[in-house]
Amino acid sequence: MSTKQPMERRKFLSKIWKWAFGLVAVAGAWTSWDVLQPANPGGFGGKIKDGDPADIPSKGIETVSAAQAYLTKEGDEVVALWWRCPHLGCRVPWCETAGEFECPCHGSRFNRLGEYRAGPSPRGMDRFAVEVVDGTVVIDTGSITEGPPPGPESIDEPPGPMCIEGGE
Ligand code: FES
To answer: Which of 87, 100, 109 to mutate to test the pocket of ligand 1 (most atoms within 8 A of CB)?
Structure first.
């Protein structure tokens, strides 16, 4: 009896250690899996699916509110612009009559591709990574590229009557 007791105790402690190690391993795996998940799948900050790229007007824009984005096209390529003004962050609406984006806060203006036209913005509108997967536009709102610096516009689409106050 006296020689058997230490063995049982050793076995018991060994089992406890194995269980503890198993629990730590499970907790670690769960934490790793949780950390690697997108912060907000399907919402802003994650990848957001839109419709058929053929539905995006070639000389206009389509608004995707869930992505805070405007979709437009550069040739056949889909461009996803963040509607946040690079100046101080106001939402920049599309002005249909002018065919450009016009910021109501301080008057920055951008052409249909989000390229800088006028105002205090330091650059063109920022853009999201976008791809077409199985015929569906997918906007990655977690992947943002700064808009291009002011410079010559790459499209020849002169503005019409402006929407913001003081417009021509
Ligand atoms: S926030 Fe758009 S011009 Fe200032």
So the answer is: 87
Kind plus residue range of the DSSP H or E element containing 72? strand 69-74
Res. 4: pLDDT tops 60:
no
Given a cut of 90, whether residue 54 has pLDDT beyond it is yes
CATH homologous superfamily, domain 47-145:
Rieske [2Fe-2S] iron-sulphur domain (2.102.10.10)
Residue 101 has pLDDT above 60, yes or no: yes
Mean pLDDT for 121-133 is: 98
Residue 19 CA to chain centroid, in angstroms?
42
Q: Which runs of consecutive H residues, i.e. helices, occur in the chain? A: 4-36
Domain boundaries, the chain: 1-37, 47-145
Q: Which of 85, 95, 125 to mutate to test the pocket of ligand 1 (most atoms within 8 A of CB)?
A: 85
The DSSP annotation for 110-156 comes to: E-TT--EEESS-SSS--EEEEEEETTEEEEEEEEEEPPPPS---SS-
